[in-house]
Specification:
The complex is a heterodimer of chains A (about 150) and B (about 220). With about 150 residues, chain A is mostly helical. In chain A, α1 packs across α2. Chain A is extended. Chain B has 2 domains: about 60 residues; about 150 residues, no CATH class. With about 220 residues, chain B is mostly helical. Chain B has 12 helices and no strands. The interface between A and B is large, with 102 and 127 residues.
Chain lengths: ~150, ~220
């Protein structure tokens, strides 16, 4: 945790001093990835803190979400237009990126399935703070079955 | 004193809401929805102004910074997969990010929403901590952006599975990227129901889309105007 704060602090300073047009924490993310890839730092130093932070991610922006009470008027007046923009935009973005990823050739069989261990996949799931379904049950599920389960 | 009160209240309510969601995993009971709703209800009924609430609760927001840095961990863990599937991931995310930025800003202008609102809408397909920072950088309103990101996630997670069936997207990488690019965290949560591969692809899509969004949003907006 402290290590992550340190990286964040360093990259914030970096951004401020060299005027990189990116959020400091994003530069920190790239910096940490680079340091990990170059074996300058070890994954173990960050793992616990990172897993905890990512698991509680939703909590950290609850205060911001509450901020909408300052904009009651806006939601009241522009609500439907906002919703329309978001709905149309989301359908467009999802459809486009999904179709492209589907139709650009990629290696048959997912490389990670063979090479990763359970712990890596658990860690990937921890990014998603809410319900995590057991892999044994979900692996065989078709979208249709899933639909039925989640009304 | 009251600062600590609002901080504790937020944390307690969050864990209560999470409990509720684990018991009944319905989208409408997601803690992203129930926890802010409960807090708003409390603030409105007790007449506490938002400024007093945020004086205590802003400590939680500060955690978003190291949390963003922490995204490097899953990215690093799945670097092999990232390299192997670089072509479809790169193409889908590049097109996805550009279309997300342009469609949000363009549609907002088309329906005559105000400039601040339009700018706040622009980073809505990116995960909240980064979306708020992008919004701040381009002159939007980070608080409004947080709300738009939330709604985008809920909308995307709802229409995503339907879209996957409609477009006949069968590969886990296609399904994952569709969910992660369009609906970030909430979509990724849903993507894991399609299997671990789709979920991991969605996680990667979410993080990389955030990186791309932070880079492209100011650039594209400058070109636009």
């Amino acid at each position: 945790m402290a290590a992550l704060w340190a990286i964040d602090g360093v990259s914030n300073l970096l951004v401020a001093s060299v005027h990189i047009p990116l959020p400091g924490s994003m530069v920190g993310c790239l910096l940490l990835f680079l340091l990990l890839s170059l074996h300058v730092v070890r994954l173990a130093w960050f793992e616990q803190g990172a897993n905890w932070l990512l698991a509680q991610l939703l909590l950290f922006f609850v205060p911001s979400a509450v901020g909408v009470i300052q904009y009651r008027h806006l939601v009241w007046v522009d609500g439907w237009r906002l919703l329309a923009v978001m709905a149309v935009g989301t359908l467009f973005v999802m459809g486009l990126s999904g179709l492209i990823a589907e139709h650009i050739p990629h290696p048959a069989g997912w490389p990670a399935a063979a090479s990763t261990t359970g712990s890596t996949l658990d860690a990937a799931r921890s990014v998603v703070p809410q319900r995590s379904t057991p892999p044994t049950r979900t692996a065989s599920q078709t979208p249709r079955e899933k639909e039925g389960r989640q009304p | 004193m009251t600062a600590i009160l609002y901080l504790t209240l937020t944390v307690t309510l969050y864990f209560l809401c999470r409990r509720l969601y684990m018991r009944w995993p319905l989208t409408v009971l997601s803690p992203m929805l129930t926890c802010p709703a409960a807090l708003i209800l409390i603030l409105v009924t007790t007449g506490v102004p938002y400024t007093r609430y945020i004086a205590g609760a802003h400590w939680l927001t500060a955690f978003l910074q190291p949390a963003t840095v922490a995204f490097a961990i899953p990215l690093y863990r799945h670097r092999r997969m990232l390299l192997r599937c670089a072509a479809p991931i790169a193409c889908a995310l590049a097109v996805g990010s550009v279309s997300a930025i342009c469609s949000s800003f363009g549609l907002a202008q088309a329906v005559h929403l105000g400039r601040t609102v339009a700018l706040s809408l622009t980073p809505r397909s990116v995960t909240t901590p980064i979306a708020m920072q992008i919004s701040n950088a381009i002159g939007g309103n980070p608080v409004l952006t947080a709300v738009f990101v939330l709604w985008t996630g809920i909308l995307g997670a709802t229409v995503g599975p339907w879209l996957i069936r409609l477009l006949r997207i069968r590969s886990p990488i296609g399904q994952g990227i569709l969910m992660g690019m369009g609906a970030h965290g909430i979509g990724t949560n849903r993507a894991f129901a399609y299997g671990l591969e789709a979920g991991t692809a969605s996680t990667l899509a979410m993080i990389l889309a955030a990186l791309l969004g932070a880079l492209l949003t100011p650039l594209l907006l400058r070109l636009w105007s």
